[in-house]
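Entry for zinc ion complex. Fields follow.
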Amino acid sequence: MSLSLNPRILKLLTLMSAALLAWTLAALPLHTESPAPNARKALVVWGGWEGHEPKQCVDIFAPWLERQGFEVDISNSLDSYLDTEKLKQLDLIVQVFTMAQITREQEQGLLEAVKSGVGLAGWHGGLADSFRNNTEYQFMVGGQWVAHPGGIIDYEVNITDHEDPITRGLTDFKMHSEQYYLHVDPLNEVLATMTFSGRHAPWIDGVVMPVVWKKMYGKGRVFYTSLGHVAKDFDVPQAREIVQRGMLWAAHALEDR
Ligand SMILES: [Zn+2]
């Protein structure tokens, strides 16, 4: 006896299985490119003086953070600091914002978030020459730019801490850029220095200046390097590596490497 089905029943069965398949697919989570739910979260805030090429620098480091598994939000406004509760959910804030004004409310949001444990990382004027009127902000960063004698000059960066994960394995290197003279916090854990010549300001001849440091602000880790006047400075592999590792350290992610 051969098995034969009424064509109408066969059609009904086909429709039912198609509907079942569609329902099953809809119930399944869709595969998307978004990071895993437990991905570390970073906020990159850029703006301020255009001469520091904030956008070009963000375009180097934000995609890199994404490749490390971070979910990265990029903002061009300090208003991103207003939602303190949202900020506190982050692992890392990267600020690239030179010579600007910050409102009391914006500053308060940032300070509170870092104090609660969110990491903060930045370079050059984007972190240490941002808000010249805001001393509590400077207290958090651990330094404030005051001069770059001679403008764009040649200098050498000396790695002074060869054990720290941010500078481990790196050798001294040369830069052709601004050499930042900063007022610095004795609390900073200095990882690299540079020495000023007296060529452009004779009275500072031989001054040894921190160029990479890390510190705490409350429970938050703060990383800073004065390198990175323009995006091209990060063509120097050590300069780029120091920022990358510094961001990871601030986000408690360097230990995972
Ligand atoms: Zn500069």
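NOTE: The first strand starts at residue 41 and ends at 48.
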